[in-house]
Amino acid sequence: MDCAGPGFRKSSAAGAHFIRPAHASQPERRALHSHVRRTTDTASIARNTAQNTQNDARPTETAAMPLSKTENRQFGDKCLPLLVKSVATGFGFDFRVCPRQMSVSPTLGLHITAARSANAKLSYPLNVFVHLPPSSVRQLLSNLDRPIAAARASDRVQEEIRKLMSQTGVDFAGRSQEKGEVMMVELSDIAL
Hints:
The chain is of the alpha+beta class. The protein contains 4 helices and 7 strands; from the N terminus they run ββααβββααββ. The protein has 2 domains: 8-63, no CATH class; 69-186, no CATH class.
């Protein structure tokens, strides 16, 4: 569709189409072309910025790569017993800590339950499933051959679970929670 009427000429510069008066003076034409160049430069800068942002996002996508079957098995066989022991010891006899696989998590996690105490603030007994992101699981696996680092890591996991429970609205002292369903909690990356 040609919308240029009599006395107007269709012009294009760097992919931008516009209509300019046929009788425009030389300085007006320069100003018009300069505006088109600035507009296309701004558009190309925005396009390049978007591409660079996408390129910057790619390494984080690969960092969150799911665990392989071997890593998952090693975590379940070697790391999880340490975590269960550490968390169960740290939390006390009132809490039951079991290794469990849930559909929400691609890895095994800790299922922590406890009977609601008489003076609890919330209505339901504690029922929480805690799982670790793949990067934390890989860190734990890399520290397995160093017993001190593995013990320190399991202590850190216990502290993180306690802190995360208090942030999500669990009454830890009263061993209770708001809803009568399993609360899913993913720990953040743990620096060992």
